[in-house]
Structure formats: C-alpha cells, structure tokens
Design brief:
The complex is a heterodimer of chains A (380) and B (583). By secondary structure, chain A is of the alpha/beta class. Chain A contains 17 helices and 12 strands. The N and C termini of chain A lie far apart (45 Å). The radius of gyration of chain B is 24 Å and the shape is globular. The chains are: A alpha/beta (380), B mainly alpha (583).
C-alpha cells in the first residue's frame, strides 16, 4: 500500500548496513560464519501456522492452544506503555500458562531492532504490536510479518485489516488544554480555532507532529480550503505557539499550568492524567470533541521467523478478544472503533491517511520549516 | 607508598621515555602483549560505531558514495550556521560554569581544612546522579515563569520572575549538571599536586590569589585543560537539556537536531550522521587544542621521587566566605532540584505549591516503583553493568593512557583521538552499530548483558581515557625508571607504582563512569533484551508513560542509592590507601 515510503525508509535504515562501515564489518565477519541475511519464514513457524489456518475458524483456537502450550513462551515486541503491556502479558500468562517476555521501546527503536534482527536472520520476537507507520514499514519488508487471520479479525471492519497486520487498537489526535488556563467555553471547537488570538502565547506544538500537520492539511483541502488559506491558518497557529519536545512531557507542563494548550496531543495520555486528577481536558462540557479527530492505529503482526508461532497466533487472537479490555482500560481505542464498525461517541473521526504516512519525509520537512521560522507571540 | 614532588623541570629530559619502550625489551614480551591487546580492544570499541556512522553518512539509498546527508543537513533552510553558534555558545558557557564550580569545590575538598569532606564529596555527586531529563524538568518545576516553586515563593513577590527556557537557562543548568564531572577531574589533579610549592610561595611573601594564579592553577593545568575539553564536548553532545529547555524559545543546537532526525519517520540517518560528523570535527579540534596546551608535558609532572605529606591549607577568615559559597552552591545545584523532585514524587501530577497540593501528597509513587517486580532486577543489572564497565574501562584506559603519554610510538595520538570519538556518537547509532555487528557474530553476546556492557564501555571510553591520561601526566618518569633500574618488570611497575600513584584520578574516573553508566539509556534501550533490563530502561518507561511523578520518585531513590555507592567506594579506596585526601 505504501511501497514508496517504506522502501525509502528501509533503504535509509539499511544504508548503514550497506555503507562503507557495513562493508568493512561484513568483510571482517565473513569468517565468523555470519548467518544468511535474507529473512525467510522459518519452517516451524510456517508449519504451525499452516496447521492452525488449515482448520475451520471455530477449531483454530483449540489447535493454537495445543501447539502454544508445547512452545511454552513467546516474546512480544511492542511500543505499548509498560504498565499496559506487562498487565496484558500477565493476564495472557494467567489464562494460558504461557510466559510472555516483553521487549518494550519507542516505536522507532522497536522498528530498528526488528530491521536489524531480520536482516541478520535472527529475529528474537514472535509477535509485534506497533503503531501504524512503523508496523507498515516492517510489514513491507519481504518475509518478516504475517497477518493474523484467525476468528478475531473476522468481525472487524475492513478498515482495520492491512497488508501483513491488523489494527488492534489506536488513539486520537486532539487538542488538549489546561482547564486552569483555558476556561470552559474558550476551548477550541475546530482545528481552525487554534489560529484564534485567544490562544496566542498559551499554545505549545510538539516538534515531531508532522503526521498531524499532513493529515490536517489534507483534511482542509478535502473540505474545500485553498492551499494559500491553509498556509495562512498554519502560520497563525504557529505564530502564537512555542515548540515542545515529547508528548508526555508537554502533558506534564499542561497539567502544571505552565502551558495552556497543546495544539495536538494524544487523547489516551490526557485521559490517564485526568484520571489522576490533573486539570486537563480534551472534550467540551457536553463530552464532545469539537475538532475532526484523527485516528492513529496500533496494529499486531506475527513474525514469520517466530520461534513460537502458535503462541504468537494465540496472543494476537487473545488481543482481539479478552486483551481489548487492557487497551480500552488504558483509554486506547478498541479494534472495532479503529475499524469503524463501532462508533466513537461525540466525535467525528478518520484514520490518518496512508499517503501522509507514506510521504513522511515531505511532511516532516515542511512542518519543521514552518515551526522554525515562527516568531514568538506575546500572551494575550 | 610514599609520594613525592619536585619543582617542575624547565627542560624535558630527552630521549629517555622514547627509548625506554625499546630499551626495556628485556622485560619480556608481556608488556608488548598487554599493551598491544589493550590498544586493540580500545581501538575496536571506538572504531565500530565510528566506522558505522561514517559508512551510513556517506552512502545514499543505493549504498553508493553520497554527500546528500550533508546537503540536507546544511541546506540554507536548516539554519546550520545559527545552530553551530548556539552549540558553541552553549558548550563553552556551560563548560566554563562547570569548570569553575568543579575546580573550586575540588580545591576545597582536597586542599583545605573544611570540615565534613566525605559528605561534601557525596553531595557534589548529586547533580551527576540525576538524569539530565529529570534535572531539566526539576528546574522547570523550580524556575518556570508561571508555576515554578522559586517564582511562587521568591521571585514573583519580588516582581522579577525567572525564565528557565532559552540559551541562558540551558547554559546555567547544563553547567550545574556537569559540575560534578569537573569536580571529579580536578579532585584527581589536586591530589597529585605538591602543596609544599604553595607553602614555599606563601613563605616567600606571595598572597593567596597570587599563589593560586601562579602556582596552584599552573600545576594542575593538564587537569584543567582535560576537564575543560571533556566538559565542552560533553555539553556539545548533550541533547536532553537543549531539547527540553531550548526548543521552547526556538534555540536549536546540533544535538537537538540529531535527536529530532532520529525521531522522525522515516529516520534521516544521512542528516543525523552529517551533524554528528560535524561534532566529531569540533571534538577533534578540541583534542588538538588540548594536546597543544599540554605539549610541555613534563612541566606538569608533580608526583616524583621525593616524599611529601599533603597538608590542608588553612583558609583562616576566608573560611566563612568559602563555607557560605559552598552552602549557596549546594542550595542551588543540589538541594533545590532534589527538593523539587521529592515534592513532585509525592504528587499525582505536578502542581504549583498550595494547600490543595499538600493535601494530595502521598507515597503512592514510591509504592508503585517498589511494587514493580522488574525494578529489583533492573537495579541489580545496573549495579553489575556499572561496576564491570567502570572497572574494565579504567583498567583499559590506564594502560592505553600509559601508551599515549609515556611512549613515543608513531601514531599513538590516533588512540587519543579515536577514544574521544564515541562521545559525540548518538546513542541510537551506537546501538544500531552494535546490533549490526553482534547479530552476525556467532558468540553469545547479543541477547545477553555482555552487549550492554560493550555499549556502556564504548560510551565510557572517552571519560576513562581523559581521567587516566590526566592522572598519568602528573606522574614523573623517574619513578618508572627507578622501578626498572631496580629490576621490576613492566607489569610490576605498572601495578605497584603507576596505578597507586594515579589512583586519585582513576578512582574519580571510576565513580564518574559507574554513575553515568547507571543512568545511560540511549544505547541500552536498543540492545537490552527481556530479563536484562537496566534501571535506565525503567526510568525511560516512566518518562514515556507520562508518569513524571513516579520518575521523580525513581530519581530520588537513585540519588540515595548511588550516593551510598560513592561513599562506599571512597571508604574502600581509602582503606587501601588510594584516596587519602578524600577520606
């Protein structure tokens, strides 16, 4: 679906391996019996998955349980928050008696690790849970990921099933504000509202939010705005803002009242802070979200070279069912909400367009350029 | 072991050092073997990420030679000129602050009769123990114009609220954070200095400031130069404080751009590599300048064959002013950030000081971190990796430093430069390089703690080498020559003469490396495996989860745990006669 981007990213990542250092190191290692770098599905993984997939849907789970128990454990690679991923691992272990080892890091770090391991033919993970951009990139690498096609995805909407992975969760891009600094009725009720002078000097923009910039620009174009109008809107938004680094860090500064409003942040981080009593909000008093919120999916895929393929299948299956509770308890969206067959109350949504993800570099450069030229506006 | 000093010789003794490498060949192949193996290990540690970085920067998507990364990084839109200026201003300013504070504290610690020195030593380490990201956030909690505790209590009532963001805030806070590095360096330098020279000057009628300017500081010049260089490059390569405090006011430095590029999707390694190589050039220039400044190396050898007993300098009436200055420093650099962290660690979310905030305080964050089953394992792993890394690097560096300082082997300066380079290599790039290599080596390294230790050793190498080189420069050749004349083999001389004499600097280096290894994250996050988590990975988890208050609680625990480690290290080293002055 996004070959251009993923190929570019893959090439950039593998450029290090292909470069002079790679040559030097490869030559040095030639005598060390370096494994074949071409990733290929392991025979065991393919055999186990074939056995499961060959059965009717209502028998697949039992077969997977039988095979997974003989495997005994699985390794999950994920970007999902530590407390959520470990709670999921524990619950899965309690239910099936299968140990889950968790490698957790930021999305780009997980992707790096997978790229390196797969290019060396030594994948350490069995199942991958990662955000849209990175899991798409991994899935486009030939022979690295396989989609889970069990009964769990059968009732998902088409929007949740991708090439090599399925959406298991997601979150919303929304403005978040301090209720101490932005009084009720003053909150933004549309993205255009962010350009209003009432937010000047109170607003912070995260430096890496180019997906949002691209998605919103395309949304405005679809709404009939001209490019020059859109550029002017962005200029006004940025002129009244400061730049921040890290969505969690910005949320803390909002909670403390140091900043007034984040032009865009993630709903689940805000909801978690609100649970702790922080004076934050991303909804109006009636519970609605005024802006058109963008959904960023989080997906699951099975590693083709998995050492524990049946356990990986079973984990993906569980994630579509009982595991959903852990994700939604952490204020993430359910797979059905991301897929579109279950409405999200009080907000109009759409998934981040694939072409925005695909043209990541273009949007990142444009957003970066916009942010760095911005003058600072005094607080109103 | 008697240590001694002599007046710095005005003319270098010719030939003896260089010829000794050859002359004492009769002491066996052991020396060649040990030194050769160490040099290979040290060069290997440094070369892997450097080659990888260079390879990635100068190749295009198809793997062909390209300067595209430089074109993107230094395009007119990228604003590289302003970034360069910001980077240099930031690095020079913060290094100056850290060096002045560190040198003053070290002098008081080693050379004066100030009471409570063990406590002073441990307290001096606190800013170092607090991870940079947490130190910056603590300062936002303290000095933010709207919600900072200092502004709430002090500056708002006075009508002059502070502004923590921007270049000024970055410089001051980076300087305070790095002051322990300068302190540790100069502790080693002052320990190797003969106080009788100062006493002679005083008896000859020189006043205190004149003694300081004309005797004390010149004698510790190698240490000052090395510490200044290290502080400068350390600041140049730091991204945490510039990212958190600089971007807010539109202040970009090279590292904030590297961090930005590495967070992008897709990652632009070419640009990140181009910025990193630019930092390498600046660091290389720094090494060159420091070599030039220390070129008359023999002039600074203060530990020689004549015995001396270090006597503390009595500060007299100045003692009160010095004490007041130290107290002020500790309030600003240690107590206030620590109080901010303690305050934050008792809350669910950060809020300005108020009755409401007080009523919400609890120990929940501490209960949360202690109930995390992985925490105990992670702290154990961190202790193991920190101790192994610090010990290995200090021993390797001591041998490598002997090679670069004492021999005249052609090309030895390459080791100096090479070992300095990991300082400016982004941790993520180091992690990728190590993954690339060790995934292809059929040895049980990937997936074990060994790969973490290799990563930490690589990152610690520049610090180990600078500490060891600085310590080695202070030791006169004549002690080695005496040992040789008396029939001692090289290894015996190294173990029984050089290591004990250099112990002040080496122990300081060990402490520094152990602490920074404990909190190192950037490479660890990529190469750890489930079950091998280290404490810094868990800290990052809290940061990513937005649990800053739990993060503050971990920071407080770390300060106490590592302060105990520092005190224990001091005690052990003093028991073995290695650190008389500190204890």
């Amino acid at each position: 679906m996004v070959p251009e981007t993923t190929n570019r990213n893959r090439r950039r990542i593998s450029r290090l391996a292909a470069g002079g250092a790679g040559v030097v190191l490869s030559v040095a290692l030639a005598g060390c019996g370096a494994p074949n770098a071409a990733p290929a599905g392991s025979a065991d993984a393919n055999s186990a998955l074939k056995q499961i997939n060959a059965l009717p849907a209502d028998q697949q789970r039992d077969k997977a349980i039988e095979l997974a128990k003989s495997e005994g454990s699985l390794t999950l690679y994920t970007e999902v928050a530590d407390d959520v991923s470990h709670a999921m691992a524990q619950a899965f272990q309690d239910k099936y008696g299968i140990t889950v080892n968790v490698y957790r890091a930021s999305a780009e770090t997980v992707e790096q690790r997978v790229q390196q391991e797969s290019s060396a033919g030594r994948l350490g993970g069995d199942v991958l849970v990662l955000g849209d951009g990175e899991i798409t990139d991994v899935a486009n690498e030939p022979g690295v990921l396989q989609n889970y096609t069990g009964p769990g995805v059968e009732d998902l909407g088409d929007a949740a099933v991708f090439d090599g992975w399925s959406a298991v969760s997601g979150y919303l891009y929304v403005p978040v504000w301090s209720t101490d600094r932005i009084s009720s009725g003053q909150e933004p009720t549309s993205w255009e509202d962010l350009a209003d002078p009432r937010f000047d000097g109170k607003m912070v923009i995260e430096e890496s939010d180019s997906n949002w910039y691209g998605a919103l620009t395309e949304y405005w174009l679809e709404q009939g705005k001209s490019q020059s109008d859109i550029d002017a809107l962005w200029q006004k938004i940025v002129d009244g803002s400061v730049v921040g680094s890290g969505h969690s860090a910005i949320m803390q500064l909002l909670a403390a009242g140091s900043e007034g409003i984040a032009a865009m942040n993630y709903d689940y981080i805000a909801a978690g802070q609100i649970d702790k009593g922080a004076p934050l909000s991303f909804t109006s008093e009636d519970g609605s979200i005024g802006v058109h919120a963008f959904i960023y999916p989080v997906g699951v895929g099975l590693f083709s070279q998995a050492k524990n393929p049946a356990a990986a299948w079973l984990f993906a299956d569980w994630l579509m069912g009982d595991g959903q509770k852990f994700l939604t308890d952490a204020h993430l969206l359910s797979a059905h909400q991301v897929g579109g067959d279950e409405p999200i109350e009080g907000v109009e949504t759409s998934i981040i367009p694939k072409d925005v993800i695909a043209d990541g570099t273009k949007w990142a450069d444009a957003f970066d350029s916009l942010l760095r030229k911005a003058p600072k506006a005094p607080e109103k | 072991m008697s240590t001694a000093t002599r007046l710095a010789p005005r003319t270098p003794m010719t030939g003896s050092t260089g010829s000794r490498w050859k002359r004492s060949a009769h002491h066996g192949a052991g020396r060649y073997l040990i030194v050769g193996v160490v040099i290979i290990i040290v060069a290997y540690l440094a070369a892997v990420p450097v080659l990888y970085l260079i390879g990635g920067t100068f190749t295009d998507d198809a793997g062909a030679f390209s300067l595209g990364g430089f074109a993107r990084a230094f395009s007119p839109e990228a604003g590289a000129g302003a970034m360069m200026l910001n980077s240099l201003t930031f690095a020079v300013g913060s290094a100056a602050i850290a060096l002045v504070i560190g040198t003053a504290l070290a002098y008081v610690q080693v050379r004066t009769d100030t009471p409570g020195k063990p406590l002073l030593f441990a307290a001096s380490m606190v800013p170092l123990i607090i991870p940079g990201v947490l130190y910056a956030i603590a300062w936002i909690f303290l000095a933010d114009a709207k919600v900072g505790l200092l502004n709430t209590f002090l500056f708002h009532p006075l009508g002059t609220p502070t502004h923590v963001y921007g270049l000024g805030g970055m410089i001051v806070i980076e300087g305070l954070h790095n002051a322990p590095l300068g302190f540790l360096f100069m502790v080693g330098a002052f320990q190797g200095m003969d106080p009788s020279l100062e006493e002679s000057a005083s008896m000859s009628g020189a006043r205190g400031p004149a003694v300081l300017r004309r005797i004390t500081l010149p004698l510790v010049r190698p240490g000052l130069v090395a510490a200044g260089l290290l502080l400068f490059v350390r600041a140049l390569s730091d991204f945490e404080i510039p990212s958190i405090l600089g971007l807010h006011d539109g202040v970009y430095v090279f590292t904030s751009r590297i961090y930005f590029e590495l967070r992008q999707y897709p990652i632009d390694y070419g640009s990140a590599g181009a910025y990193s190589l630019c930092l390498l050039l600046i660091a290389g220039a720094g090494v060159g300048i420091s070599t030039l400044l220390n070129r008359n190396a023999r002039a600074y050898q203060t530990i020689s064959g004549k015995a001396f007993r270090p006597r503390p300098v009595s500060l007299g009436k100045a003692r009160y002013w010095v004490s007041a200055g130290i107290v002020l420093y500790f309030i600003v650099a240690v107590v206030l950030p620590l109080l901010a962290l303690v305050y934050a660690s008792l809350l669910n979310y950060f809020q300005p000081f108020s009755a409401g905030a007080l009523s919400q305080m609890s120990l929940d964050n501490y209960a949360k971190i202690f109930s995390t089953s992985a925490m105990g394992n992670a702290f154990k792993n961190s202790f193991i990796t920190a101790i192994v890394t610090a010990t290995a690097i200090i021993l390797l560096s001591a041998v490598a430093a002997w090679f670069t300082v004492r021999t005249k082997v052609r090309g030895r300066r390459i080791i100096d430069v090479l070992t300095f380079l990991p300082l400016v290599i982004p941790g993520l790039v180091l992690g990728v390089a190590l993954l690339f290599l060790y995934l292809r080596i059929p040895l049980p390294i990937y997936g074990t703690m060994l790969i973490l230790i290799i990563a930490f050793c690589t990152l610690a190498l520049p610090f180990g080498m600078q500490y060891a080189t600085s310590a080695m420069r202070q030791i006169s050749n004549e002690l080695e020559e005496s040992a040789e004349v008396s029939g001692a083999g090289w290894f015996t001389m190294f173990r029984r003469i050089l290591l004990p004499l250099a112990s002040g600097g080496l122990v300081a280096g060990w402490i520094y490396i152990a602490i920074v290894t404990f909190r190192e994250l950037s490479a660890a996050i990529l190469v750890y495996s489930p079950g091998n988590e280290v404490a810094s990975v868990l800290i990052w988890e809290q940061y990513e989860n937005g649990s800053f208050m739990a993060l503050a609680a971990i920071g407080v625990v770390m300060v106490f745990v590592l302060a105990i480690l520092v005190i224990v290290t001091q005690r052990i080293s003093s028991r073995f006669g290695l650190q008389r002055e500190i204890s």
